[in-house]
Each structure stands twice: as C-alpha cells, then as structure tokens.
Design goal:
2 copies of one chain form a homodimer. In chain A, helix 3 crosses helix 6 (89-114), helix 7 runs antiparallel to helix 9 and helix 9 packs across helix 10. Chain A is 69% helix and 5% strand. The first copy, chain A, has a domain at 94-226: Tetracycline Repressor, domain 2 (Orthogonal Bundle), CATH 1.10.357.10. Chain A is mainly alpha-helical. Chain A has 11 helices and 2 strands. A two-stranded antiparallel sheet of chain A has the order 1-2. Chains A and B meet through helix 8, helix 9, helix 10 and helix 11 of A and helix 8, helix 9, helix 10 and helix 11 of B. Chain A binds a DNA duplex through residues 1-2, 5, 22-23, 44, 46, 67-69, 77-81, 83-84, 88-89.
DNA sequence: TAAACAGTATACAGACCTGTCTACTATACA
DNA sequence: TGTATAGTAGACAGGTCTGTATACTGTTTA
C-alpha cells in the first residue's frame, strides 16, 4: 500500500496538504530525509529495470510526456510492480534524477581527476567533461535537471530537492576548484563558471552557438587568468 | 469559420500528416510563412484577451500545465471562440511566443539604444536589459523560449519556428554588436556572449548563482577586452 | 432587410493519465 | 511444511485534456 496515500486517510503524521498544478501532495517533515537516503535505490532486478527505462524515457521525451503505462510496458513489468516499488510517478521521477546526479558527479570527478596539470587545467577539464557528456547523451536534450525544473513547476514536488542538490553540488565543486586556482574572488569565479556551464549546455541543445562548450571553455580560461 | 480547420477538411492544399508525441499535425508548405506574418495577430478584442491571458498562464505555469478550458474561462470567453480564432492550442502557443519575441526585441533594442557610450557599453547594456527584464517578469520563470523548447519536444510543433527565430535573432544581434566593438573574432565573441546570456538566465531562475546577470556582465567585459 | 460576422451556451466524443483493486502464480527461506 | 516476498493479469475508477457539434443571440453592414 502506498505510504503517501495512507497519510491522506490517517492524519496521525504531521503533514500539510498542498494543491498546486492540479495535483495534490502531502508534504511531511521526513520526506526530504527519506528521499536523500538509499530509499531511492532499486531493491530488485525488476525495480532496476523500471528505473533504467524511466530514466531513458524521461530524459529523451520529457517527464510529462511519458506515462507510467509506457514505462511499465517498456520494462516488461505490470503497473502494479512499478507502484509497489516507487509508490508514485513523482517518486520515480525523483529517483531518476537522483541516479543521474550520481552518475554526473562521478563523471566530472573522474574526468577532472584524470587530467594532469595545474588548477587551471582542472577547471578547464570540467568543460571537456561537459562536452563529452553531452555528446554521449541520447537526443541532445541538455541538462536533465534544468528540464525537470521547467516541467515540474510545483515547488513541493519530490524532485525539487534532488534538483537543488545537483545545482548546489556543482556550484560548490566549481568554488573548490576556483579556490585551488588561488584567484582573488573564488565565489565570483565560481558563479561565472556556473553561468558558462549552464549557458554552454543550453546553447548546445538549442544549436544557437556553434561549438558552445569549446567557446565557454575558452571564455573560462580568459576569466581565470583575469581573476 | 476557421481557416486552419477548413484546410483539414478540404485537402486541396498539398499537405502531409505527422504523428508525433500523440498529437496529429498537418504541416503545409505555407505554414512557416503564415506563422511569421500577421496571421498570428489577434483580429478582435476577444482574441486579444485570449492571447494576453494565454501568454500569462503559459509563461507562469508552463505550456502543458495550462489547458484551453482555463484560458477560455480566464478570458471570459467560450472555448469555441478560442478555437475559432486560433484553431488549435499549438497555434496559440506559437502566437504567444511570437508576441513575446517581439516584445523582447523591442525591449533590448530600446535599452541598448538608450545607452550612451561606445560599443563595449552597448554590449554591456544587453545584460542590464536582461536583468531588468527578468525582474519585471512574473514568477522568475526565465526564458520562455527555452522553457517552451523543453516542454515541446516535438520538432514539428509550430512553436519551433518561433523559438528558432528568437534565438537566431539574438545571436545575430550580438554578432552585430561584436562587430561594432571591432574585436578580432566577432563570431567567437557573439557565441560567448550568447552563452553568458543564456547561462545568466538559467542560473538566475534556479537561484544557483547569486547576482548571475551582474556576474555575466562582468565576464562579458573581460571577454570584450581580451578580444 | 438580409447576409455576414462575432460570440454564447452546452454537451460530448475520444484519448490519455494516475493510481487502485482483486485474484492468482512462483519462489525462497525458516 | 508453511509463510513471506515478488511479480502477473487485467479490469476499472475518476479525472483531465483537446477538439467538435449544434443551436442560439446580438451587431454590423451592404
């Protein structure tokens, strides 16, 4: 049985009901903690398959465009199984983003770690990592977190925490690299690098700037030197 | 009766049917021309009201989150009137973006035109225009065209043309300013400025970078000097 | 005066969507 | 041997969405 739905029936847990975007959410204090721990990890082989399929479809076609029926069918699983594991579509979305975030962090850390050279080279390696990442993704759909943020307007959606985490981590990592580069204002450089990363992603997806990641990398180099 | 609906009934025009994303579109050769001319302009007071309401709701809540019933109700109009004027929701979306694009161009040209100073100052004025624009918008939802591009995955959606136009215009305008600034590689600078503009918008909306537009402006200044 | 036009009112078709329910099967494990 | 676990199968409730159909009321205008 669904935990979230139970809260509607039995009101013993401290919770408040929010109605936004034509959906009803019960927001509990523990939700954040639950979402951030291993609760999102698939427990069985079927659950892992569901998550993998959902991840591909959500990213490629968009969250709202993909129904749970399609995910279940594509996973070779019944809808009941999906709901037994994830409880609600919103939670599956949060899980999708959570796993994707982990992969992204691993990818960036690995790419930067493998780069020889000083702190400037390490910062520039982030852009190489971004470029390779974007090229490896299906359908040039850009940043899954930005996309999810656009699609999920509701601030109480469980995905919001994951989205915020991802962006905060990226900002923190860039600041760390900026500090290692020993620039005068690491906070300022971190913000500027973040602007370049996000901008390069968007313009690459929308095909407005040619070689936008390479251009952003060159811009980053100038900014580091100036800092 | 509606022109668009007639075209579906009478198949005298050369057209082909596309089925993507669970919607059916009839794409005609003239469509692009039609969409780019005054066909999108509201013809009556009711049509203008519908477009104004749709623009506000689409931008604030997202295109998929807003139904035609809500738009009609909010406009104080029946759904039939909406369909008589716009033929389909997709066309209304295209009209919304078209009008928004015109407003944005006017705003940028006016802002940059009002700025005293040399070519560098004119480029920096674009960022001031962006900052003021973003602050004036309801609900900090960022770039309507990026959002629409995320929500409308289908490449045959009539909004796509408008989105591409908007981005192409912006890129062209930035290149023009870069040429006036007499830098060595105006194309490169234009791409970098575009990356900064898009990145500043995204990070402002997602609140990942503080004062991102100001930071992007500072970065632009460094890049212009370096170029 | 009659036609053309703009809009109202309301019902409805046909999809699609999330989430639930009941009843059943196979497997692991204590 | 018996019980918990994981999953199947398929129906269905209740809602939302886009788009259409029909019959009507005013208003302008030629």
């Amino acid at each position: 049985m669904n935990k979230c739905t139970d809260d509607f029936a039995t009101t013993q847990n401290p919770s408040f009901i929010v109605r936004i975007d034509r959906s009803v959410y019960s927001v509990r204090m523990e939700d954040k903690a639950v979402l951030e721990t291993e609760d999102l990890r698939p427990k069985t082989e079927a659950a892992a398959r569901i998550l993998a399929v959902a991840s591909e479809l959500f990213y490629r076609d968009g969250i709202r465009a993909v129904g749970v029926d399609a995910i279940a069918a594509e996973s070779g699983v019944t809808k009941m199984t999906l709901y037994k594991h994830f409880g609600a579509k919103d939670r599956l979305v949060a899980a999708y983003l959570h796993v994707r975030d982990e992969k992204w962090r691993d990818w960036v850390l690995k790419s930067v770690g493998a780069r020889a050279g000083g702190p400037t080279e390490r910062i520039l390696a982030v852009f190489d990592a971004l470029g390779a990442w974007l090229e490896s993704q299906d359908g040039m759909r850009g940043c899954a977190f930005v996309n999810a943020s656009v699609e999920v307007a509701n601030p109480d959606h469980p995905a919001q925490t994951v989205i915020e985490d991802q962006k905060r981590w990226m900002r923190g990592y860039l600041k760390q690299l900026a500090e290692e580069a020993d620039v005068e204002e690491p906070d300022k450089l971190a913000d500027q690098l973040l602007v370049l990363v996000e901008g390069a992603t968007i313009t690459a997806v929308m095909r407005t700037a040619k070689e936008s990641v390479e251009r952003a990398k060159e811009a980053a180099e100038v900014l580091i030197e100036a800092g």
